[in-house]
Amino acid sequence: MSIVDVSFEVRCERLPRDYGYALFCALADELDWLEEDAAAGVHPLHGTASADGSLFLGKRARLILRLTAGRAEQALALTGSRLALGSGLEVGPGRLRQLMPYATVYSHFVSTGAEDEAEFFGQAAALLKAVGLPETMITGKAHAASTPEGRMHGFSLLLHGLTPAQSLALQASGLGEGRKLGCGIFIPHKSVVAVGAD
After folding, report:
1. Residues facing 155 on adjacent strands
2. Which CATH number is 3-98 given?
3. What integer best gives the mean pLDDT of the chain?
4. What is the model's pTM?
5. Of 53, 63, 65, 64, which Cα lies nearest the Cα of 12?
6. What distances in angstroms separate CA 119 from CA 34, 128, 184, one per listed residue?
7. pLDDT attached to residue 191
């Protein structure tokens, strides 16, 4: 099963900082298959936080969905839509991007259900071992997100020493809970530095 990223240009004046669940709901309203597609993931949006708790997206911000190749073509229908999120998120042109097999990969927010870092580390190691991946990792900043079921907790996570096949497999499957809320989505990272940076 081929997995790719679909990257869309976006424009939005203001988002709530804790936007993950609201973004998923807005996307699911447009893509009626998103909620049921187990392979689908939503990358976290990156912007600048303000004192009032809002998030501002710059011109280089992108909305990125991680999908099977077949779903990726369907997702391009998002182009031109306006999502009911914050001040309104306008979705521009989208393009497909292949996953890159870097030896080091990083996820901004991985959740295993644990709030304690030591417990998280142990659970993440067990998940990696269960799928035959090396447990060579560095945890970073703690994160939390709101869902209808309560607060989801986790940490940023960097994994290194992966073979090309292992890297692609991990990027395709993700790790932990909340894949559609921006959690457990790994991207290439050039070196084992600044894992705690936002």
Report:
1. 110, 142
2. 3.30.70.1890
3. 92
4. 0.91
5. 63
6. 31, 14, 17
7. 61
Q: Which amino acid is at 116?
A: D
CB 170 within 8 A of CB 186: yes
Strand partners, 97: 5
89: β partners: 83
Query: What is the widest separation between alpha-carbon atoms in the chain?
Result: 44
Given the structure tokens 């989801």, which residue do they identify?
Answer: 152
d(CA 186, CA 198): 14
CA atoms of 10 and 48, how far apart (whole Å)? 15
Q: Which residue numbers in the chain have pLDDT < 70? A: 191-198
Two tokens, residue 105: 């990969």
Strands, E, within the chain: which ranges? Answer: 3-11, 15-16, 41-42, 48-49, 54-56, 62-68, 82-83, 89-98, 105-110, 137-147, 150-159, 187-188
Contacts 24+ apart (CB under 8 A), 165-171: 165/101, 166/133, 166/134, 167/101, 167/102, 167/103, 167/105, 168/99, 168/101, 169/131, 169/133, 170/105, 170/133, 171/3, 171/66, 171/99, 171/105
CB 120 within 8 A of CB 114: yes
